[in-house]
Specification:
Radius of gyration: 25 Å
Number of domains: 2
Distance between the termini: 61 Å
Strand content: 15-25%
Strand order of the largest sheet: 1-12-2-3-4-5
Number of helices: 13
Helix content: 40-55%
CATH superfamily of the largest domain: Metallo-dependent phosphatases
Shape: elongated
CATH architecture of the largest domain: 4-Layer Sandwich
CATH topology of the largest domain: Purple Acid Phosphatase, chain A, domain 2
Length: about 400
Amino acid sequence: MFFVLSFILSLSAIIVTLKILVGYNPEFSLRRKLSIAFVIVLAWFSPAIAGLIRWLRLLPEKVSVYTTQGLYTLFIAAMFLLGILLVRDLFWIHGYQIARKSGKASPDYDPMRPEAIKKANLAAVLATLLLTCHSLYEGTKFPAVKETVIETDKVDYPFKIVALTDTHINPATSVSRVERLVRRVNGLKPDVVALVGDIGDAKPAFVKPQMKALSGLDAKYGVFVTLGNHEFYHGSMDWENEFKRMGFFYLANEGLYLNGADIYVFGLPDPQLLMISEQAMENIKNRMKAAPNGAYRVFLSHSPRFIKRLSKDLIDLQISGHTHGGQIFPFHFFVKRFNDFVAGLYDVNGMKLYVSRGAGEWGAPMRLFAPSEISVITLIPSGNKATE
């Protein structure tokens, strides 16, 4: 049903786009119309083409990644173009009707005049190119540090957690970029580094140089990691072994008490992907209750909405990723619909939830109104605690 609906929506988008771009331009030759149609059809079906290339392994891994990114970029550009055309025509047609009723309409701006349509379409294409280039820049630029402070009476001094999520490291990810990321994180002097899923987006064997660079992460109490959905796609056991080999604390329904900090860090591989039963849920809750009394309890879960199955007697703070903050507008609305949370700090039934936008991107290497981030969460003594 999903694929049928996707096909129908894509076909509808193609028809509307072509109708607006070439349907009202009689001077366009058949060859030009067919060329435009080919590009539009390719763009709207590029995700399916990319999936087919990956599934059939038609290209070497690194080439396949670049090809997939290019096809997804073309798809997003087609979405931008359709959105610009529809919004433009909505305001143009209604605006012209209002102007005509008031006697101020100029025939030069008539939305049914071929010459006016031609100029407006050219402007829409240029706007699409600019928006696509801007989104590519936002998607590929180095993530900024985003700091969040949480007050609690369970800590006696500031405790810094640096969270990295959704880096989506693949064969096309440059080693120098990973090295720069490691230097930036280590320079923040974290007490804990939390890798909250979708760190790798390929089999570990394909990203050995990148993982060697990532193993340079350092924190006072160590680096903690749990899996996201993309590690499962590329072999969860392989990634579990890889993270352990790198010297990280791998958390799979288990926790570790940080003696001296009175912090308990618990982690679970992507719970949304596992589709946890009620019986398994009871086991998870019992494991969470192993936290010492009075300890501040930090839970690492790739999927944010899992917090709705928990209660404040189990955790104090959940750190998640997965959403990319929507990554590309207007996908923010769909992310909100399917994940309940998008990005930032939330208060959920007495528990804190921090959802990181992530330090990488998936599909098209683009971001729009959802900048990437290195998330710094600092726990500080509450006002009453600080004055004791």
